[in-house]
TrEMBL record:
Organism: Chlorobaculum thiosulfatiphilum (Chlorobium limicola f.sp. thiosulfatophilum)
Family annotation (SUPFAM superfamilies): alpha-helical ferredoxin
Residue ranges constituting the 4Fe-4S ferredoxin-type domain according to the UniProt record: 156-177, 209-239
InterPro entries: 4Fe4S_Fe-S-bd (IPR017896), 4Fe4S_Fe_S_CS (IPR017900)
Keywords per UniProt: Iron, Iron-sulfur, Metal-binding
Protein name: 4Fe-4S ferredoxin
PROSITE patterns: 4FE4S_FER_1, 4FE4S_FER_2
Pfam families cross-referenced by the UniProt entry: Fer4_17
Coiled coil residues, start to end: none
GO MF: iron-sulfur cluster binding; metal ion binding
Residue spans crossing the bilayer: none
Amino acid sequence: MGIQEQYRSEAAALLSSGEVKLVIGFGAGSTADRRRPLFARTPEEAQKFVLDAACIANLSTYLLAEGLLSDGKKVGVFLKPDGIRSVNILISEAQLKPEQVVILGYAIENGKDVAALEGRNISDFSIGEKIRNLTPPPHVIEAAEKIEAMSAEERFEYWKEEFSKCIKCYACRQVCPMCYCRRCIVDVNQPQWVSTSSHTLGNFEWNLVRAFHLAGRCASCGACDRACPVNIPLRLVNYRMGKEVRSAFDYVAGENSDQKPVLASFKQDDPETFIL
């Protein structure tokens, strides 16, 4: 049995037994190399699931749909390691409970091979090596290092040019599982905290506010990069923020569901080298 058939069978069994009311996975997309979210409520619908190297979206964001988990029934979801990290973060921030989610974990290795991850409960994955040592693709790290090597003035000009493309569509916010506020600060107009216009100041305000809000919280799934219609490398900002948090506090966002949010906790031995 291939891995796709294995996961279809597992999803169908979860639905048949009544253990879950819904399984969120992937179905065929508009082209051969695209996949779209598929919501299966019956074993028959589970036979439509697709699992291959094109299944790259972080489906954990759908777990936050209003009312989805309010009836106390479990939901199954296909998740890569970055998606599992996202669930861990959401649990640590009291947005989910571990018992609400059944995980069908998988990994994409070498950009083309799909491998199964053993376990179904969040505790089965939380301390796994794939979770803590999850790193962005080499091209992301290479681009980040190139920017880090720039002078402050060069970095400012680089991001000024990139952010100038922003059209304030907020696709990055909508696709991110960590952006779960019912009313985002950019939607508040009395007072108007962040300008809604797509000009230099407004674009800097939005993208930097979002970066600050994701400090120590980004699961490095790359959903923001993929969603951006003008190809701003947003992942590079979040990667750098995560690197700073790891260096200062030895904290990896989503490493396990028991950790407290790094910026909402205090330790006597926290380093203070960043204080001027």
